[in-house]
């Protein structure tokens, strides 16, 4: 199964507002997550799906994801 990353404009703006070290660490972790056999096993399913389907905890930060099955 293949997993791709895409970012909303707001997510890119939020990343840009972080210090460069933190932004790199978050991106590196997100890329690592996508390369796992089952990345969704590392996620927590959200109960309020109006903001997304899953979240990934990366240190003090949370990355919200939307799952599109093809």
Helix fraction bin: 25-40%
Query: Can you tell me the overall shape?
Result: globular
Overall pLDDT, averaged? Answer: 91
Question: How many structural domains are formed by the residues?
Answer: 1
How many angstroms separate the termini? Answer: 10 Å
Side-by-side strand order of the widest sheet: 1-2-3
Q: Please tell me how large the radius of gyration is.
A: 12 Å
Low-confidence stretches: none
Search tags:
70 residues, three-stranded antiparallel sheet, alpha+beta
Report a brief summary of the structure.
The chain has one domain (9-65). It has two helices and three strands, in the order ααβββ.
Provide an overview of this structure.
- With 70 residues, the chain is α+β, with helices and mostly antiparallel strands.
- The protein has one domain.
- The chain has two helices and three strands; from the N terminus they run ααβββ.
- The protein has a three-stranded antiparallel beta sheet, with helices on one face.
């Amino acid at each position: 199964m293949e997993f791709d990353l895409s970012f909303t404009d707001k997510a890119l703006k939020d990343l840009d507002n972080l210090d460069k070290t933190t932004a790199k660490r978050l991106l590196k972790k997100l890329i690592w997550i996508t390369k796992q056999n089952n990345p969704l096993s590392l996620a927590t399913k959200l109960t309020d799906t109006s903001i997304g389907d899953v979240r990934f905890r990366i240190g003090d930060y949370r990355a919200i994801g939307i799952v599109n099955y093809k």
